[in-house]
Amino acid sequence: MIKKVNFEDTTICACATGNNISAISVIRISGPDDISIVAKIFKPKKDIPLSEVPGYTVLYGIIPKRNGVRLDDVIVTFYRAPHSYTGEDSAEISCHGSPYIVSEIISMLIDNGAVYAQGGDFTKRAFLNGKMDLVQAEAVGDLILSETEAAHDVAMRQMRGAFSKELSQMREKLLKIVSLLELELDFSEEEVEFTDRKELRELLENSCEHINELISSFKVGNAIKNGVPVAIVGSTNTGKSTLLNALVGEDRAIVSPHAGTTRDTIEDVINLEGVLFRFIDTAGIRSTLEAIEIIGIERTFYKIKQAQIVLLMLDGTRKEEFKESLNALSRKINSEEQTLIILINKCDQHAILPASETDDAVIGNIESIFNATDLIEEVRTLSSVINLYPSAILPISARQGLGLDALRSTLVESQKNMQSAGEMVLVNNMRHYSALKDAFNALLRANIALGEQVPTDLVAQDIREALYSIGTIVGEISTDEVLGNIFKNFCIGK
After folding, report:
1. Domain residue ranges in the chain
2. Dist. CA 316–CA 227, nearest whole Å
3. How far apart are CA 98 and CA 108, in angstroms?
4. Which of 250, 287, 406, 480 is most enclosed, with most CB atoms within 10 A?
């Protein structure tokens, strides 16, 4: 069990550069006793009292072992409150990246009064000391984990306070309104109105519209952060697992000629031209009485609902199943919200050139090598009959890896709106998304209540609920449990 400590009277330490062997490691120390603790283990080359060292000072020296023998040559950077990351007196020890050296230095710091930091403790202190709000603190974690330029740009904008500023401006307007409404309640006997009801409704409508835009941005923001969810679906033995393995370049899914091999969903994330795609291999859809397979198929339907892109796999050698597969998907997909790409697999079995010539020639134009034109037209005709309109119908051979470049290009093209996403204020956090929905619903109730001339105190209560929800996002209203859940996933040293 992690011992709970009061951050106001403890000094924490941890390696900020991970536990891997490296040329340089950085050990961070922060808290009221950091200078005195560092002074007990660090011997600067210049004979200078560390208590007199000003902030932003870098000193070279040594850290000796307990027996006095030199452990390592180090550089220590000092920061003075409040001009540090945490807002406290802080120091960073740059040493060689030997795990032994790092472990010894941290042990000496702890022996002299420091406490080993848990994940997120430094950023948590920065939040509690007013150096950043909760949105900015969470953006620090997003920045560390960012894998693409778009994810980096979104995190940087949030760290700089773009999202917080929008919420703050909205909250100020709502606070002014609710204050006037509550003032009216104090003068209720005089029947005085301090706010124009028409103007109030316009403000509430504008606020609802603004919040709804932020809520809608979560689809893009979440996809940038966690990857665009792409569900690979279809009947059994159409090559779904083979496709996943071909895309990720390793055997992530079991491939077998026996139907029903995939019983559960398998996921992997791939970076295509700076866009993350989270591919989800699903259980094959078919009629079955096997209990475990039925559960897998139910999860397939659930993943279809979650997906932003659906890849429907058809077996080019089983044309008689096309109609059934298309009909089954049409009942599960939302054509307005989701992108559908139909893949006709095993088209290498329709090659019109000798196998020895196919591999070289197919690089140029897969459709000229595969006799897939008739198959594509048949799928397009069947789709239109049931009002299913795919953005693309592509012939491929997952086993041979043919046609996959066209698939990758189609996927990237479908997400071209992400190229400028870093310049927008996007919601990419489920906690923020949920709180915004609560705020939206509260303001919607308030707006409806005004139109129905509901008593002022009830209208004010709905607006207060919206203010509470917005306040939880930036951390103006928070609990130890919420903070614990937010910072527990941070890396040690941050």
Report:
1. 7-131, 140-217+426-475, 226-421
2. 29
3. 16
4. 406
DSSP 171-231: HHHHHHHHHHHHHHHHTGGGT---S-HHHHHHHHHHHHHHHHHHHHTHHHHHHHHH-EEEE
Cα 97 to its chain centre, rounded Å, is: 30
pTM: 0.76
| 140-217+426-475 CATH pick, 3.40.190.10, 1.20.120.430, 3.40.50.300, 1.10.645.10 | 1.20.120.430
Nearest to 319 by CA among 284, 353, 351, 344: 344
Give kind and range of the element (H or E) at residue 392: strand 392-395
Which residues on adjacent β-strands are paired with residue 142? none
| Tens-level pLDDT at each residue, the chain (494 residues) | 333 445 568 999 999 998 778 899 999 999 999 999 999 999 999 888 898 899 999 999 999 998 889 999 999 999 999 999 999 999 999 999 999 999 999 999 999 999 999 888 999 999 999 999 889 988 898 888 888 888 888 888 888 888 999 898 888 888 887 777 777 665 555 555 556 677 778 888 888 999 999 999 998 888 888 888 888 888 877 888 888 888 887 554 444 443 444 434 577 888 888 888 988 877 555 444 444 444 555 566 666 777 888 888 888 888 888 888 888 888 777 888 888 899 998 887 654 444 444 444 444 455 444 567 888 888 899 988 888 889 999 998 888 888 899 999 999 998 877 656 656 788 999 999 999 999 999 999 988 887 777 777 888 889 899 999 999 998 887 777 777 777 877 888 88
- On whether the CB atoms of residues 137 and 490 are closer than 8 A, the answer is no
Burial 332-358 (b: 16+ CB within 10 A, else e): bbeeeebbbbbbbbbbbebbeeeeeeb
Radius of gyration of the chain (CA): 30
Per the CB < 8 A criterion, the answer to whether 253 and 280 are in contact is no
